[in-house]
Amino acid sequence: MSFRILGLDPAPFRRLYGLSDAALAAHGAQRLVATAPRSFPDRVELRDLEPGETAILLNFEHQPAETPFRSRHAIFVREGAEAAFDAVDVVPEVIRIRPISLRAFDAAGMMTDADLVDGAAIAPLIDRFLADARVAYLQAHYAKRGCYAARIERPALTG
Questions:
Q1: SS3 for 69?
Q2: CB neighbours of 143 closer than 8 A, spacing ≥ 6?
Q3: pTM for the structure as a whole
Q4: Which residues does 5 contact at the CB level (< 8 Å), separation at least 6?
Q5: What phi and psi values does residue 19 have, to the nearest 5 degrees?
Q6: Is the dihedral of CA 34, 27, 8, 17 positive or negative?
């Protein structure tokens, strides 16, 4: 089964790019500079920041459904990220190299299933979850800290 992995739309974060540290703090956010590889996984481009790149650390509501599963948590967004990752049947390296908690949700935002998987072996679990007709979308979370990583859904049918 095919799947589509999506990074976050950068539009809501653009207002934070270039703000002073004090202005970011007023938004409950902070700027951090990557000092090591694989230290800040960006949620827009779905890649790890390179040393020297800056990230905005902020709280983000990744599960807005009015259910018991409504949720928000800390995420990193590369300061200046402009293009959301959007690919079919491609697992970005930022997910492949980490343990992932994969969560399946129905159209009402209720969790129907969940499991832990090594990111390098995520595709079969995605396929299994999306084979369930009740599942509307999946969320990948980085298992160690529980942070939202990406949305996964069935690709749109074309032609």
A1: coil
A2: 98, 99, 100, 101, 116
A3: 0.93
A4: 46, 85, 86, 87, 90, 91, 92, 95, 140, 150, 151, 152
A5: -65, 155
A6: negative
| Phi-psi label, residue 108: left if phi above 0, alpha if psi -120 to 50, beta otherwise | alpha
CA separation for the pair 156, 140 (Å, rounded): 19
CA distances from 157 to 3, 4, 138, 152, 154 (A): 11, 11, 18, 15, 9
Nearest alpha carbon to residue 118 among 130, 134, 101, 131: 101
Q: Is 122 exposed, middle or buried (0-12, 13-18, 19+ CB in 10 A)?
A: buried
Q: Which two tokens stand for residue 130?
A: 């999306």
- Helix (H, G, I), strand (E, B), or coil: what is residue 15? helix
Nearest to 3 by CA among 78, 91, 72: 91
Q: Mind listing the pLDDT tens digit for each residue in 46-105?
A: 999 999 999 999 999 898 889 989 888 999 999 999 999 999 999 999 999 999 999 999
Tens-digit pLDDT profile for residues 145-158: 889 999 999 998 65
Task: Report the candidate in 66, 75, 56 with the shortest Cα–Cα distance to residue 148.
Answer: 75
